[in-house]
Records
---
Amino acid sequence: MCWSACNKAWEALSVNGLENLRDIHEPSLIGWWPLAPGWYVVLIAAFIVGAFVGRKIYRRWRQVSLKRYALAHLDELAMQFQASHQAEIIQELSVLLRRLCLAYYSRHQIAGLSGDDWLRFLDRTGSTRAFSQGTGRLLLTAPYQKTLDDSAGELFDTIKLWLKEQQ
């Protein structure tokens, strides 16, 4: 008797129970905002790395453009050197070198340098001795000479080599 009652209840449940069943409801989608704490760490790290790389790229671009400008100005002065007052052009070369050094090195390293100290600084930063013992001495002596010898044109090559050594 018990089995027949259970059997009837089971049949009633299976027939009527299918009508009462509903679809499975999936949970709502998880939104992308607010971010999990780990993503904040990733974003901050990406920002720091991006700022560092951007700064390096900007500095490199600035140095390359500075070298390009200096080489163009040096070529312009070389053309003027052949045609006009050579002592004035050499003074302009000295001014150009000062400006370049101020761009590459700190002001307190350069501001107090003059005479032989200035030439030794150029030798040290350019890995050469051409300024203190070669044609670079014209930077000091040319303004006081009436005529320059033929080696004055080599000063342009010395300055170009110095400029290529700068990073």
---
Amino acid sequence: MPATLQNALLWNAYARVYDWGVNGIGSKTVGAGYVPYAEMMGKAVNHVSRSRADRLLDLGCGTGNFPKALRTNGWGGQYFGVDSSPAMLSRAKGKNQDSRDAFFCETFEQFTGRGVKKNGQYDVVSALNSLYVLTDKAQIVSVLNGIREHLVDGGQFMASILHEIDPENMLRAQFGLPRTEPKNDMASALKLGFSHDPLLTLRLFLPGVITKILGASSNTLLDKATWTRLIESAGLVIDDAAGYYGGANYGEPLPGTFFLAHKA
């Protein structure tokens, strides 16, 4: 099966189960099913609220949890979401009916590479747990340069970046347990999960497996220092780079870095 078709099918499946992991089955509350995800989303929402942004571009909007969280928090600006998965966008549009929201089915490079004439510039560009889909450094640099072009002077770039695959510590963060030495051991993670919350572990298992498969096609699980250099090479000034326990499920990398930068 061609990789592009395989990934398309995986994203379609991922769209169906993603919210089970982060929000919980049957829940309409963003982050209700996974504490680290809720904390990451809360950090992003608070930053947008403090920035008083009128226009926000969200790269990799997925199932639309971020715009829903923004609206729930009372944000009144214009939101533009970009994702290359029609299945993800279908769910995003279904849960976000605000007339100020717009969604585009494009890759990051397609959107950021075509200039700003069609949609103008933005006060904030966000990429929450999404840049790991880029497959090489040249592609990352291209997208980061496009992001800078799309920002107004002084505009802010906000990104949660995933670094390493560490399933056990993702579960430990969910259960409030102390962090242990990183190890990519699914069996150990499942043993821990079933001993604490079997139902939650089962709910997270499928999206976790899909994330690992998708991540295997990418070589961009880069460390914090490398991402710092890449962001700065695009002419963005980093204001903060705090660690966080983000990710949608135990299959995603831990720890991560929440970057805040601006266009000088």
---
Amino acid sequence: MSTTPDLLPAEAPAPRLCHLIKIPTFDGYGFNLHAEKSRPGQFIGKVDSGSPAELAGMLEGDRIVEVNGVNIASESHKQVVERIRAVPDETRLLVVDSATDAWYTEHKLVPRSTQDNVRYIRTPTDDSNKSSPTPPNGHAPQEAVADSLPSTQDEPDEPKREEASESAELPPDAPAPRLCHMTKWHDFEGYGFNLHAEKDRRGQYVGKIDDRQPC
């Protein structure tokens, strides 16, 4: 597969360079990152409403091509998460939706953040109007995102447990919680589920669960 799509056909679909910037009203970037057993690559799972990821144009189902200018096709889930976290409070992800991904695969091309047709989308911040950074392809941003357009998620910190001082007696009809003991397998990377926070309620929640995995 060619890695130099310098002469793109006019009908070549545009990848999106999503510049995510953390905002004080939201914890993390607001997206889940997961791998799929049936196809290679790292994919965007749930994108939280009002999050930096949504405001930077990320969509559920997008495949990540680059993280901060580096192609991550041969990297593991853990390596991609580390790349996203390497730059404090912001990250740039080159992503393609399924149709765009299929087009580049069919034409044996690899999208790059430096090609001319890339759509640059940035999380709006208070200082957005003071100075607009120039994207890697050297062109001015094609979109200024004011509307909410649908990440490895910036994984939320483990919540602190609030221990009750006394153990209350449960009524007989109390539903049973589940204690899930997960053990990693040698032929599967990770536990196979995504963790996310929801803006409208407290706590941490399990998102997408991969097929035939430890969890």
---
Amino acid sequence: DLAAQVERASQRSGIVQINQGLLAYKIGKHQQAHTQIQEGLRLAGNGLVALLRLTIESTLLAIPIEDLAPIIPALGKQSLAKYVPTPAEVGDLLNVVNSYHEQKIASLKLAITFLQVPLKKALSQKFSQDEMFNICQCFLQVAQYKLLREYANIALKRWEKRPAFLFYQIYSQVEGKASQLSEKQFTRLDEAVGKAKHAGDERTALMITRFLNEAAMPRFNIEKLIEEFIDEDKIEEILRRLGEAHEELPELRRPPRRKRKP
């Protein structure tokens, strides 16, 4: 609609102003840089989205965002520490982050990290269950594990029966590496799949199942299983079959050969 078109045009104008200000900063025209960047932030909507855009653009021009703090008060540590974004601001940020992620902007992770203080402050706000789900999913996509953990922990306290938030919590703990799942974590996620299916949440069930399938090793000690329950004469045949199935096994320690009874 018209309002959305006007907003997008304003955002584009804001980015142009921000870039002009950054170029002025690079040649030492700090007062001009201050004026143009401030105007760019205003056109970009101020708040988290504007700060994210500024951080992205400054990184692309090889200007450390921290260096701009003396001329842009909003970038100062005290300002960031006092800033408590609203749920609406966080929601707007997610849309921009997802867009940058699709464009594979390399500096995105660094930009979000710079804003992690106000993003943590935002946890004092009342987000809906769907909003928290979208936030967690976004942080998962951009590998922001610390922020993901913070939001998932809060979400689990409010909606402890929602399997998705348990998944996000554990995913953040192992930093997205299924091979690092402990037996306890694997079991909890496996149980969460059943709970999600029972609740009709097929999306969460599929998400967790895919992650569990990424686990590099089976969820049992196969060496111990072979030693205790399988006749040693069948080991070579089993290894051959598993090899054909492309299963990865730990280096096997062959048990001492038992003497057969006459």
